[in-house]
Amino acid sequence: MKEQFQLKVLDILTRKHFDNTRVIAGQEGLTRFVKWVHVVEVTSIRNLLKGQELILSTGVAWKDQPSLFISMVKEFIENQAAGLCIEMETYISEIPEEVIAIANQHQFPIIIFQEEVPFVEITQDIHSVIISQQYQKISDLENYSQSLNKRLLTIETYEDILQFIFSALDVQIIFRLKNQEYEFVPNISSAEQAKILEQLLSTNEQGSGRIASVPVFLFGQEYALLAIYSADIPISEYDLLILDRTATALAQHLLRDLYVEEKKRAEEFEWLHGWLEGEHSLEDIQEYLVENGLTVKTNEAVVVISKLFPVKEKSNHDVTYLKLLFRSVFEQNGFTVFIVEKRNELIFILINNRAKKNLKERVKNSIDSIRNSEFFRKQTSARFTAAAGKFSDSLCEVHKSYQTAKETLRIQKNMSQQQIYHFYEDLHLYRLISQLSKQTDLQELASEYLEPVIQYDQKYNAKLLKTLKAYLECNGSKQETANKLYIVRQTLYHRLQKLENLLGEDFMEREKRVAIEFMLLVHDYLTASQPNKINQVR
């Protein structure tokens, strides 16, 4: 590791006022780093030490008290002080043997001044060096960042960035793209790799000891991992800053690559559109997958259409990054993804790439992850709904899934109970209503059953329609219905009597009840389909 900004106890011994000194204990600890100098002439210091301070003292606080001296040295060691410099003869004339033994045991340097020295001048001298190093650190860090940013304009692969940080720090670089193998710069043997990875995977603290890692985030999700390992000396704060800056540069480069790749995929539109329209044979589809270097494990597929509702004027920038987000999440959930952009819709052909056949669950998880992602909530202006078509066991029947996805999208616009996504297989009666509405005047049919109740509500604001829905949903349970509507049972009895008068005493008998329940769905569907009553769900 390049030892930038690493002031050691050994270096301080060469400074002014340290000519007439002697190391009497902890010789092996002279390579300890020094971050600051602290003068200690009191017995309570624990809360004042932050670690790596060089302690200066005359020993006045513990003169003639060997036990207190021992206690203070132990406290210095526990708080990770860099070392202790004591001015002799002013207040103390000898160092207890037990103190020397403890210092040697913990490799804690004890240095004695054999003459009176000016502590003020010592602290000024050493602090000037430390501050100068800090300024140099900031300067070098800025130079590194500027050089890296310039290189980003011409760098072809992320490997070039890994070589750049290696040149700057001269430590082992470890990098891993999500779900891929670890890469090492420079390359080392498998045995050495395994040893480093064991430490990396067992280390939770960033920058602790000789290994440090930082995640590389894209769209609020961890996309890669960058780590450094030093076999010789501990990792410094400067190394961590370089690591962080490099991770940011990697994120920018990887995002640029993904963006360019997504742009290229736009050229696939024509072929994919033909696939959605059923124009390609199974042989054509398989040939296309091979030409694009794609290997799929199954022939199971589903089409999902996402309808976008931009809050402001839609920009190509927004849509391209939205496609990146959707693709990334779907792929993480085990799908090979093809995307067709069509006006304000994104059409996804999802091919199952896992042995497990829980496609529906994984589609749900994907959409929920997208909706809850930080990128979608904070960095995009769009809202969306999603409609999943029929699940298919053949890649040449994707067009059927596409047609049913379009039908699902059309139906969900007219559903009173809005959700962010629907599946074709879950629509049941709504599919029947949709088909019937193309051939029959359902409004007139619904009126035959519900018009008396609707008119009564409009005239008296009696909430009978709401009561009827709740009563049917509770399977005729009066107690459950009252609880659901937050009314007393006497009020419910009064409303049910009114419903009997309007619908007939037999409205809860099987066939009539089924018809009424169906007509309630029809009423909701037709009401929601009226202009200005469609609510988009974020």
Give structural notes:
- The protein has 538 residues and is an alpha/beta fold.
- 49% of the residues lie in helices and 16% in strands.
- The chain folds into 4 domains: 9-127, Udp-n-acetylmuramoylalanyl-d-glutamate--2,6- Diaminopimelate Ligase, Chain: A, domain 1 (3-Layer(aba) Sandwich); 155-258, Beta-Lactamase; 277-427, Alpha-Beta Plaits, CATH 3.30.70; 442-528, no CATH class.
- It has helices at 9-12, 66-78, 97-105, 119-152, 158-169, 190-202, 237-265, 269-276, 282-291, 316-332, 359-372, 374-379, 398-413, 429-437, 442-460, 464-473, 478-485, 489-503, 510-528; strands at 21-25, 36-39, 53-57, 83-87, 110-113, 172-177, 183-185, 211-218, 221-229, 301-310, 335-342, 345-352, 382-388, 421-423.
- The strands form 3 sheets. It has a 5-stranded mixed sheet, sandwiched between helices. Strands 11-12-10-13-14 form a 5-stranded mixed sheet, sandwiched between helices.
- Strand 8 and strand 9 form a beta hairpin.
- Helix 2 runs parallel beside helix 3, helix 5 runs antiparallel to helix 7 (237-265) and helix 17 crosses helix 18.
- The longest helix is centred in the N-terminal third of the chain and has 34 residues, at 119-152.
- The two termini are 51 Å apart.
- Residues 531-538 have low confidence and may be disordered.
Question: Could you write a compact summary of the structure shown?
Answer:
The protein is an alpha/beta fold and about 550 residues long. The chain has 19 helices and 14 strands.
| Spatial extent as radius of gyration | 37 Å
Return the domain count.
4
- Detail the poorly predicted runs: 531-538
Major beta sheet, specifics? 5 strands, mixed
Shape: elongated
Count the strands?
A: 14
Helix amount: 40-55%
Would you state the CATH class of the largest domain?
Answer: Alpha Beta
The CATH architecture designation of the largest domain is: 2-Layer Sandwich
Q: In CATH terms, what is the fold-level topology of the largest domain?
A: Alpha-Beta Plaits
Q: Quick one: CATH superfamily of the largest domain?
A: Ribosomal protein S10
Return the average pLDDT rounded to an integer: 85
Distance between the termini: 51 Å
Structural class: alpha/beta
Q: Strand percentage, roughly?
A: 15-25%
* Subunit organisation of the chains: single chain
Number of helices: 19
Strand order of the largest sheet: 1-5-4-3-2
Organism: Neobacillus citreus
Domain Purine catabolism PurC-like: 11-130
Domain PucR C-terminal helix-turn-helix: 464-521
Protein name: PucR family transcriptional regulator ligand-binding domain-containing protein
